[in-house]
Amino acid sequence: MSDQAIDGVIVRPLTIIADDRGAVLHMLRADDPQFVRFGEIYFSVVNPAAVKAWRRHREMVLHYAVPRGHVRVVVFDDRPASRTRGAVMEIETGEFQYKLITIPAGTWNGFMGLGDQPSLVANCASVPHDPAEVERRPHDDPSIPYVWSTGGR
């Protein structure tokens, strides 16, 4: 994870309860302090070395967890009133570094598949998906100071 924290981004380790039959991977509860409200849950499959970026939600708070595979989540803060404006935050997560990553509305984010197998990203979003609520830019947009590579920055 990068050393630049971003206001409103919360990274919290999650619990995996495993035994010889399999495992239960916790993600988010309604009584967790970072829970806002339920909008929808969806899953995104990301292939190795593939990048799904950039997107910025005007209202939606994202809660990402990666129960299968390994990804790098990147957040860029360009909110005008934010004290962390200009910061870029990298977070590696997956089944062996299982975490909940809460991303506030108004920040740019994306993720990249790491390793040699497809990864599964779960998102418990605070509002249902609305194409008019999200803004997108290409992964190599020069206005965002980040270059995607399998080795990090």
Features of the shown structure:
153 residues; mainly beta
Mind explaining what this structure looks like?
The chain is mainly β. The chain contains no helices and 12 strands. The chain has strands at residues 10-13, 16-19, 22-25, 40-46, 51-57, 62-68, 70-76, 88-94, 99-103, 108-114, 119-125, 134-136. The strands form 3 sheets. A 5-stranded antiparallel β-sheet has the order 1-9-6-11-4, with no helix packed on it. It is globular, with a radius of gyration of 15 Å.
Helix content: under 10%
| Gyration radius from CA atoms, angstroms | 15 Å
Number of helices: 0
Any idea what the shape is?
A: globular
Q: What composes the largest sheet? A: 5 strands, antiparallel
The SS-based structural class is mainly beta
Question: What order do the SSEs take from the amino end to the carboxyl end, as H and E?
Answer: EEEEEEEEEEEE
**Average pLDDT figure:** 94
